[in-house]
Design a protein that fits this description.
Length: 333
């Protein structure tokens, strides 16, 4: 058993459980030990916000991925709960789902926002994003919460994934879950060169790839959730109750925030088209104005209300994870 842990560390570059707990204990003492009450809460919030903001900037760069991080996070939470993970692990998987593409900060815009399929050379660059994410996390005190999801979500049970070509036993459960949810959202989301797949077509591909690209048990459970329509409130949405709206030129690229009000203007981040929000049948819809947004209009603006809700979940994740970290290696089961 010890050999297996050593092998995993050698292959993944990630710490085995004992070393990880030791590191967490050190981080806990350094960042939270001298602090109590409100001061500790504020320190934790600043650290969590730094992670969430980095992830949001990735999504803001690509006009076709509106809501992707939220959707992967929600899918991951549902799947983690469905397979019976405990509350701490569910919270960690959900947070990892929101942060999994952190490394795309280092992918050039010409590749990240390309409106045509990537070439082999461009795919090689895109496949560096898990390692870039790991380097970005290297000195962050809360890296242990999301390291698996960020660094290993493109690994596959058959060993054909990247960046390390791990096989099933070496892939942490958080990475397995986020990998399934990321793939499903990629298949069902539209890109400039193709429309998103219908739900059932994407679920059929998950079935075909179970045991190859995805762990069989997790893929089968996710497919069950999909076929029972338990994913439909997430599919094609950017937030709870907020479906993506359609730009006539670019497809479903328009993100409407939960805090939006009728008569507000929103803009397609791909073509720059301006749209007016209208209230119809107790929901918001968009109407083209025929104008294009200015450079100021098209500047990315964080959805602070959404980030605050993700932050609240991240606080729970931190509260559940840090007591075990602070207890040190002796607390490991």
């Amino acid at each position: 058993m010890q050999q297996q842990g050593d092998d995993e560390q050698a292959h993944t570059g990630l710490p085995c459980k004992e070393e990880a707990l030791t590191r967490r204990s050190g981080w806990f003492g350094r960042w939270f030990g001298p602090r109590t009450g409100r001061c500790a809460d504020e320190t934790a919030d600043h650290l969590l916000v730094s992670l969430l903001n980095m992830a949001w900037f990735v999504e803001a760069r690509d006009p076709y991925t509106g809501g992707h991080l939220w959707r992967v996070s929600r899918y991951a939470r549902l799947l983690a709960e469905a397979v019976g993970l405990d509350a701490a692990e569910v919270a960690r998987v959900s947070l990892g789902g929101f942060l999994h593409d952190l490394g795309k900060i280092g992918v050039p815009d010409a590749i990240l926002c390309k409106s045509a399929p990537l070439t082999d050379a461009e795919w090689a660059v895109m496949r560096t994003h898990p390692d870039i994410g790991m380097r970005l996390l290297a000195a962050h005190p809360l890296a242990f919460l999301v390291r698996d999801a960020i660094g290993l979500h493109h690994e596959r049970p058959d060993g054909c994934g990247y960046p390390r070509g791990l096989t099933l036993e070496a892939i942490p459960v958080a990475a397995r879950i986020v990998g399934i949810c990321d793939a499903f959202d990629a298949m069902t989301s539209s890109r400039p060169y193709r429309r998103g797949m219908p739900r059932d077509e994407a679920l059929a591909i998950l079935c075909e790839q179970a045991g190859h690209q995805f762990e069989s048990g997790l893929a089968e459970r996710f497919v069950q959730l999909g076929r029972s329509k338990q994913l439909d409130h997430i599919l094609g949405h950017s937030d709870d109750g907020m479906p993506l709206q359609v730009c006539p030129n670019c497809g479903p690229t328009l993100v409407v925030r939960r805090t939006a009000q009728p008569t507000e203007r929103i803009y397609c981040r791909n073509c720059g088209g301006e749209f007016r929000l209208l209230q119809k049948d107790n929901s918001l819809h968009v109407e083209p104005t025929g104008r294009r947004g200015s450079a100021v209009d098209l500047q990315p603006e964080a959805d602070l209300a959404l980030l605050q809700r993700i932050l609240a979940e991240a606080r729970l994740c931190l509260r559940l994870a840090l007591p075990a970290a602070a207890a040190g290696p002796g607390a490991a089961r």
